[in-house]
Design goal:
Shape: elongated
Number of strands: 16
Distance between the termini: 35 Å
Number of domains: 2
Number of helices: 10
CATH class of the largest domain: Alpha Beta
Radius of gyration: 22 Å
Helix content: 25-40%
CATH topology of the largest domain: Rossmann fold
Largest sheet: 6 strands, parallel
Order of helices and strands: EEHEHHEHHEEEHEEEHHEHEEEEEH
Length: about 300
């Protein structure tokens, strides 16, 4: 899969495209349904299969509020799209200037002329233009006079409830991580590089890998999780603390991972790790003594080994 950033769109020289169009911020199963429709249509029509997506989330630029945090990083997003089997990923930086662009100019100038789109695939709830006033049906009408086809995909539901990024973010923030994989169609994982921490974990006998996250992920509920770490394609059972380490009066939000089953001491500094939380074990606590903290960590480890 080849990636094109917005300043490279004019360099596209391949055949006509079938493009999934949207933000696709979580790449959950509903998003994948739209993307796979574009891929399958491309294969049947001798088109190149691609996705056109916006980074960052438009609400981060247009709203005064902070906007939604991400469910997957750009690196993870590219890996997932590669697995789906797309030919191209067209990545548009969403800026205030871009938001003011006339949507007809965007469709005609960028998607149709530069990227040779013969077909656009969108979700039924897709909106566009100023304040999102345009709908998927409006897009379909545009296609009739700009000579491109529009396919509209209905939302994916589980037990009658629509899969959405908002729903998944809520589950993450509430620590209900076990309910996420059926919605994502994969494990939820936070990735980053291991950086130097305070060294307290090593001092008390439970060394931790301190993760500097590679994206502004949705923050899981503060506390301790049982889960898995992946390092260089090897998986290890682990426990992770998300929070501010109140026993030692830390202020910054941290991700500290104690990796189990290591047969020897390993230096992970600078390495990229992915942590998948499987189950929320307990709330973050402030302990009166280091011994109390150590005993609780031992209990966390025993429980993790029991369930994983």
């Amino acid at each position: 899969m080849k990636v094109y950033k917005d300043d490279e769109f004019s360099e596209y020289q391949d055949k006509a495209t079938s493009l999934a169009l949207g933000t696709f911020d979580g790449l959950h199963r509903g998003h994948q349904k739209v993307i796979k429709k574009a891929r399958n249509n491309a294969r049947c029509s001798d088109l190149a299969a691609g996705i056109f997506s916006f980074v960052p989330h438009p609400r981060r630029v247009l709203n005064q509020e902070e906007g939604p945090r991400v469910i997957c990083s750009q690196r993870q997003k590219k890996e997932i799209l590669q697995e789906i089997g797309l030919d191209y990923y067209f990545c548009q930086e969403f800026t205030e200037e871009f938001s003011r662009m006339n949507f007809k100019d965007f469709i005609a100038g960028i998607l149709c002329d530069e990227l040779k789109s013969g077909q656009l695939v969108v979700g039924k709830d897709f909106t566009f233009g100023h304040r999102g006033e345009g709908t998927s049906q409006d897009l379909k009408k545009m296609g009739r006079y700009l000579d491109f086809e529009v396919k509209i995909v209905s939302p994916l539901r589980i037990k009658g409830k629509k899969i959405s990024s908002t729903r998944i973010r809520k589950l993450i923030s509430e620590g209900r991580v076990g309910k996420i994989p059926p919605l994502l169609g994969r494990k939820f994982a936070l990735a980053g590089r291991v950086v130097h921490g305070s060294g307290r974990g090593h001092e008390i006998g439970f060394p931790t890998a301190n993760l500097e996250l590679e994206a502004d992920y949705v923050r899981p509920k503060k506390g301790v999780y049982a889960g898995y770490v992946v390092h260089e394609e090897k998986e290890y059972r682990s426990i992770a603390n998300f929070g501010r380490n109140p026993t030692f009066s830390e202020e910054d939000f941290r991700v500290e991972i104690h990796i189990l089953d290591l047969k020897e001491d390993r230096d992970f500094y600078g390495s990229r790790l992915e942590f998948t939380p499987v189950e929320f074990i307990r709330e973050e606590q402030k302990f009166d003594s280091v011994e109390g903290l150590k005993e609780t960590i031992k209990s966390d480890i025993l429980y993790t080994k029991k369930i994983l």
